[in-house]
Design a protein that fits this description.
Length: about 325
């Protein structure tokens, strides 16, 4: 069959806008101000994230790639998949190791990248269509709401890499895994990438690099609000803060107001007051243990088949199937 690429868009501009407005109202008017991470990833945000993955301090991407380098063959063998689905796919760079392994086994038929960031998704999907000569069905959606829009045909390997699951709160994580489990059948497999608990200095450095790229990425969410809602944030009036929450075992990213300031958000008719030193929480990045991953997967209806770490034991890839 000739290679074909389709793009299914499930976040229409007005639905996106309604969701953004709701998140900004409830998040910025709350006692502890917070914004969900989905809004980081406009085109600039996706490019900045790509830069993060190459920083010396950001070990996650290299660790996960080294596992895929060694074990992609075994991973695709165990699942026997002909269709690779990728959630939060971004540039799908590491994913090519899985596509290569599937192609080498002569089984690769279809790739389904799924992301909220349409521009980056289109570029990656287009490139993979040309390189691999396969059917690529790109889905633009929110993985909290649109898992049901993912094609069900084929034997599927559903990859969720980059420790993106760590950016969900524990409640969101459990709901997401349960929904995902319900969308899968006996021959489907889940491949989940999670960052592991480790020395806090290394963790903190990974989210507060010397070149300031993560700080720029964090502040980018303010520019998104400026562009999309006519807000008047001055990003330089906020300090990038990364801290380690020992109780929850997550990194927390915050934007700390450098002064007392009132920010107008024109299109919402809102004025939001920040005190000097007040934080806006923008992201958590949970660090798990292998036991915790297995337990949480089990609670959502999955059975772990096998897992792999890199030589340093920094990162974990887990292959699981649904009970049924
Ligand atoms: N998988 C890549 C990218 C990880 S960054 C890697 O491992 O390097 C997280 C990705 O998830 C981004 O591409 C972002 O646009 C996407 N994303 C974040 N929240 C999302 C959501 N709610 N629904 C769908 N995609 C989301
Ligand atoms: N999933 C990535 C992680 O938790 C996302 C990420 C990397 C990120 N660096 C960030 C999110 C900085 C917010 C800010 O590592």
């Amino acid at each position: 069959m000739a290679p074909t690429m389709t793009v299914d868009v499930h976040v229409a501009p007005d639905a996106r806008r309604t969701a953004l407005e709701a998140d900004v109202r409830s998040g910025l008017l709350a006692e502890q101000k917070t914004l969900p991470p989905i809004w980081f990833y406009d085109e600039r945000g996706s490019l900045l994230f790509d830069e993060i993955t190459r920083l010396p301090e950001y070990y996650l991407t290299r660790a996960e790639r080294s596992i895929l380098d060694r074990h992609a063959g075994a991973i695709v063998e165990l699942g026997g998949a002909d269709t690779l689905v990728e959630l939060g796919s971004g540039t799908s760079e590491k994913t090519r190791l899985l596509l290569d392994a599937m192609a080498a086994g002569g089984r690769l038929r279809r790739f389904v990248p799924f992301d909220v960031s349409e521009e980056v998704l289109r570029l990656a999907a287009d490139d993979i269509t040309k390189t691999y000569g396969i059917e690529v069905t790109a889905v633009v959606g929110d993985f909290h709401r649109h898992l049901g829009e993912i094609p069900r045909s084929g034997r599927r390997l559903v990859a969720f890499l980059g420790s993106t699951i760590g950016n969900l709160t524990p409640a969101e994580r459990s709901r997401f895994l349960t929904d995902l489990d319900e969308s899968m059948v006996f021959h489907d497999r889940l491949l989940l990438g999670t960052d592991l608990v480790k020395d806090r200095r290394r963790l903190l450095a990974a989210y507060d690099d010397d070149a300031g790229v993560t700080a720029e990425f964090n502040r980018n969410v303010l520019l998104v609000l400026n562009h999309e809602l006519g807000a008047h944030f001055d990003p330089s009036a906020f300090e990038h803060v990364a801290l380690w929450d020992e109780e929850h075992r997550w990194i927390e990213m915050r934007l700390r107001s450098r002064s007392d300031q009132i920010i107008e958000i024109e299109q919402l008719g809102l004025h939001v007051a920040f005190e000097a030193g007040e934080d806006l929480r923008t992201e958590i990045s949970a660090k798990l243990t292998a036991g915790q991953v297995e337990r949480e997967l089990g609670e959502a209806g999955f059975v772990v088949e096998r897992s792999w770490t890199d030589p340093a034991g920094d990162f974990l890839l887990t292959l699981a199937r649904t009970y049924c």
